[in-house]
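Changelog-adjacent note: as of this version, every example in the card shows the full chain rather than a window. The one below runs 172 residues end to end.
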Amino acid sequence: MQDKEESLKPPFLRPPTQDEWLEINDELRSLDASLPSHYHALIHALKYRELMIFASEETYELSRKLGAARNVYSAGIFGGAFRDDSFKISLDLAEHLYLKRVMHKTVVISGSDAQSFLYGRSVRVSHKHGLPTGKLLVLSEQGYALGLGRLAEGSDLLENLIDKGWYLRRGG
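Full-length structure tokens:
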């Protein structure tokens, strides 16, 4: 029986297709975010497709060359994955773009709400400051990324999509 790895065909890393770029950019726009113009992207296409983002030309070129013939398991910033025919941004990329000041759709929670959110729970938020709706990067009062959440129009429930605690709870 052939090993799973041996049955895979190169290239393992390739540039995103035009349709994939449309999905990626739709997700970024939904978060009022953008990739800096000097960043590069490659798709790791195996069982499902994962986006890898590169801030350095050198790292991008090395990964592209290696990925033409070898399965490069990880390189650059994990940008997200295509699941169920749509692109879902990673918490890693969302946090990176926020720190680079090219992501602006955020909500700040504090105290026990922050703790609950990190435990995988959805939390109630106050609309007194006119919060944005849709997918948001959830921050602590100190400005640390806690996770990604979704706030529906007219709702005060911030749905937990993924949080930093998930990696500890599920071994991600």
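Structural remarks: The two ends are 29 Å apart (CA to CA).
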